Amino acid sequence: MGILSVTILLPTLNDPQSRIYYSSIGYPALQRVAGKPITVQTVASTTKTVEDSLAAPGESVPLQEVDVRPLVSGQVEKVYVAEGQWVRRSQPLLQLQKASFQDRVNTARNNLATAEKNLQALQSLAPERLSELHENVRLAQARLYAAKTRLKAIDTLAEQEVKNNVAAAQARLKTSEKKVQQLQLLVQQGAIAKFQLYDMQDIYATRKRELLAAQQGVVETENKRFINQDFYITRENDFISARKALELAQKTLDKELADARLSLENRKIELQEALRDLNRTVIYASTDGLVSRVNIHTGEIVDSRSSDSLLTLAQNTVFKAYIDQARLNKVKVGDKATVRLIAYPGRTFNGRVIQLNPTVETDATKPSKAGIDRQYTYSVWVAVDNLQMSPGLQGYVEFERTSTRLVVPESSVSHLSAGEGMVMVAEAGKAVIKKVKLGRTFDNQREVLEGLKPGELVVLFPGALRPNDAIDSQFGKYQTTSPETVTNTTFSPRTDKNQSVQIPVAKNS
Prior knowledge:
Blueprint: H1 2-13, H2 27-34, E1 38-44, E2 46-68, E3 74-79, E4 86-87, E5 92-96, H3 99-189, H4 194-279, E6 282-284, E7 289-294, E8 301-302, E9 311-324, E10 336-341, E11 349-356, E12 360-361, E13 376-384, E14 394-409, E15 413-415, E16 420-427, E17 430-441, E18 445-450, E19 457-459, E20 471-475, E21 483-491, E22 501-508
Parallel strand pairs: 1-20, 2-21
Antiparallel strand pairs: 1-19, 2-9, 2-14, 3-5, 3-8, 4-7, 5-6, 7-9, 9-13, 10-11, 10-14, 11-13, 12-13, 14-18, 15-16, 16-17, 17-18, 21-22
């Protein structure tokens, strides 16, 4: 029995990994009762270089999709490309039947030729018509001037003639009147015969008639003047009519020429549109890309008013990976990545992160009631080097980041909750408790995020110690392996719960 106690029980009292070690008869309790320091094994907290890899599933997607739609309507004559085919910019994709569009071009050309001839005819006839009207205006103006001159001359002559004739008649009448009076005296005196008086009286009567005739000539002259004035007015009206005819003809010709020029320009535009539509019967690729979808076949009718695309070109295809929000801080734009695709087994492709998309809520986890926690995933876009991917290729990507972490042996940590714990540190021969914030585990080593500095001595298996216990620190190495570099790969499969699976891999230095 004594031998059993010495060979079996006694070692367990000193073994930190046995339950008896932590009892009232264990080594720490006995040393505490005896007032002696407790010998413990300590290890210095150290930094390790960690290659922290995050793996996430995903698929290849285009950064941009170009939907090809027709600009004219018609029947498809030929489709030049198929799905999965790479095309270059300006490469023909499909062709519509051209017959109706060629007819439109021919009609537009005929209309243009007719419009050109009409304009040329107007331009050649206009000067002749205007020249004739200008001549009419000139002649009317000349006739008006002549009528005006004649009217002025007649007025002057008539006025002078009337003045002279009446004055002469009046003078003759007065003379004959005096002679009659003289003859009457002579007849009374018996100096002359009465027949002489009678002759003079006849002359006097004649002079009266002459005066009346002269005075009557004034009225006739006025009538002539009125006639001449009417003639002048007629000539003036002729001139006004000729001038108005010229102005109207000028405006009419200007309008006809403007209409002809406008018609010519419209016919040119119609021809340009007809030629443009004819060229649009062949649809070309607007950019380089992959034909991801073909939605049209030979013989089908396409409508330019429809919103449906005939083909879709995918360009700048990248690998789109999905990670949950808990791992998002491990990925940054510019990080290098390794892509593996199911379509290329055994091959890897280098790439880099070009974009982190905003939060995307998964359909499977959308809550039906307010207050339920939502699950989110983020999409990470990776540009793949030296590979022209088609959309829809599935695979996964690994993001590699190297960082330095502070670690302690897992056996030195007492866990609390929510990533927090405690370690017992040897300070000046005393056991001191420190509260720490813990990270992940790397090969039996625990990452310390806060609460501890590099080089501090942590006690292994501190469960039997109490704060301020006197201890005798035995510094040593506890690691079962000697990792200088630790690789931790986290696979983030795209699941409804967005769970992550961690696969630690240790690399010996």
